[in-house]
Amino acid sequence: MRSNVMDEVATILRQAAAEAILPRYRKLLAGDVEEKTPGEVVTVSDREAEQIISPRLAALLPGSRVVGEEAVATNLSLMDGLDEGLVWLVDPLDGTANFVAGSSAFSIMVALLQDGQTTASWLLDPVSGQLSVASRGDGAFIDGVRVRASTASLTASECRGSVLTRFLPEELKEQVAAGSPGLAEVLPGAKCAGVDYPSIIQGMQNFLMFWRLLPWDHAPGAFLVEEAGGHVARLDGSEYRPSDQRPGLLIGQNREVWDVVRSTLLKG
């Protein structure tokens, strides 16, 4: 990916944060928040950020199209053809519930797909300004410094990470609960993929497990971890593709940790 495109996307995300998100951080009014689906909220900041980001991304690469979370909420057909051509995936405000609650655990995330394969990604923490980026074959960077996930071998009792249980089927919840005592610690996650994925590279967690796989939630972070040397795969070990929304994804700081965690949590 050309460095000017990488930089221009970062600038767009920072502009969206400055114009649509940060002015309302901890200052949301009652009318700024509504329930999008049962248990899930959306704010005026989500929508305004996407309105800023989407046309600017489309203009960067002629022939590309944008699939944004909020646009899909009103037009599901935008999800068709994610494996075709250049597609920008946009999560204008990941961790909306945290944003509404006044927590700083929220993010803006973008991934660029080419014929279904992620080729670049950006994750911006609007509050701290931390920017995580990755480009295929060029590695992963946090605030301009190249980063790599740990290659350390760990036993199950040394592995600490998060399992996002909200969407897990009951049978799988029971299986995870039974296996969790074999790990060092199983956490509930930050409720923001834009926080959880970089934490693997930064060494704060050794693994993550998700069930629901909306492409804008996972393509940016999964690609970041992969470019940093981590291992990302479906629960059966098969390749993750953003266009395939079948549930279940496990992320490890390396392949060995991935195997250890899977065998501990998902026996059989």
How far apart are the termini?
A: 41 Å
SSE order, one letter for each helix or strand: HEEHEHEHEEEEEEHEHEHEEH
* Main sheet summary: 7 strands, mixed
Taking all Cα atoms into account, the compactness measure Rg is 18 Å
By secondary-structure content and strand pairing, the structural class works out as alpha+beta
Number of helices: 8
Return the CATH topology of the largest domain: Fructose-1,6-Bisphosphatase, Chain A, domain 1
Q: Averaged pLDDT, please? A: 96
Q: How much helix, percentage-wise, in residues?
A: 25-40%
CATH class of the largest domain: Alpha Beta
- Number of domain units: 2
Q: What's the overall geometry?
A: globular
CATH architecture of the largest domain: 2-Layer Sandwich
Please, what is the oligomeric state? single chain
Please tell me about this protein's structure:
Mg(2+) 1 binds at residues 69, 91, 94, 217. By secondary structure, the chain is of the alpha+beta class. The chain folds into two domains: 3-147, Fructose-1,6-Bisphosphatase, Chain A, domain 1; 156-265, D-Maltodextrin-Binding Protein, domain 2, CATH 3.40.190. Helices cover 34% and strands 25% of the residues. The chain has helices at 3-21, 44-60, 69-74, 96-101, 170-179, 193-201, 215-227, 255-265; strands spanning 33-37, 40-43, 65-68, 86-94, 107-114, 117-124, 131-135, 139-142, 145-147, 160-163, 185-187, 207-210, 231-233, 249-252. A seven-stranded mixed beta sheet has the order 3-4-5-6-7-8-9, with helices on both faces. Helix 1 runs antiparallel to helix 2 and helix 6 packs parallel to helix 7. The mean pLDDT is 96.
